[in-house]
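User: Teach me something about this protein's shape.
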Amino acid sequence: MSDRITVEALDLDLLDTDGAIREADAGVAGDTRADFFKKAAVGGGTLIGGGVLLSGLAAPALAKPSKKQDVAILNYALTLEYLEAAFYVEAVSKGAISGDALSAATVVRDHELAHVKFLKAALGKAAVKKPKFDFKNTTGDQATFLATAVALEDTGVAAYAGQGPRLLQKPVVVAALSIHSVEARHAAHFRTLAGMSFAPKAFDKAKTMKQVLKVVDGTGFITG
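Assistant: First, the predicted structure itself:
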């Protein structure tokens, strides 16, 4: 039996059997990027990363789960996946990491790219565009790379956990959970490579969108 790790893409047609995701997409697809951000600003959006309104991805904050909110959460997830994918692409291409760290980064890069591809397909015209990134010197040496990978993956796990209860449609919940569990595997593996406990607690705390955006803001990775 081969132990080769493969990347399996989620099938939107299997997840969205009743067209619920596509239907919700159609309801917001007419919004321009500027309109989307404007709505978020009215709902309490925060400027981060050199003026990028990342929390615009939350769209109007709604008290109850809705199809439109599902789309907003998927866009929030997509932006986090853009960030992670770009980080690993740069880390692998730069050539400053090696051994198990390089092997892990290569596999995780492919996973994150698959997540991006799936979320963009699910969102269709409603998908936000890829931001510009500057990872500074975090991919320039192995120790800094591993520390950053742990931080990003831990944040990603907490982000998905935080949005789960806010989702309405079962297909969206299934998609989010299928990504969330893989992000947790990434976090555990990078923690081990960094000499940290792979599972320091029996229970993890979820993070709200505001908490996650504060963490992302602190990195300064999103520049435009």
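Now, about its shape. The first helix runs from residue 12 to 15. Residues 19-219 form a domain with the Ferritin fold (CATH 1.20.1260.10). If you'd like, I can walk through any region in more detail.
User: That's plenty for now, thanks!
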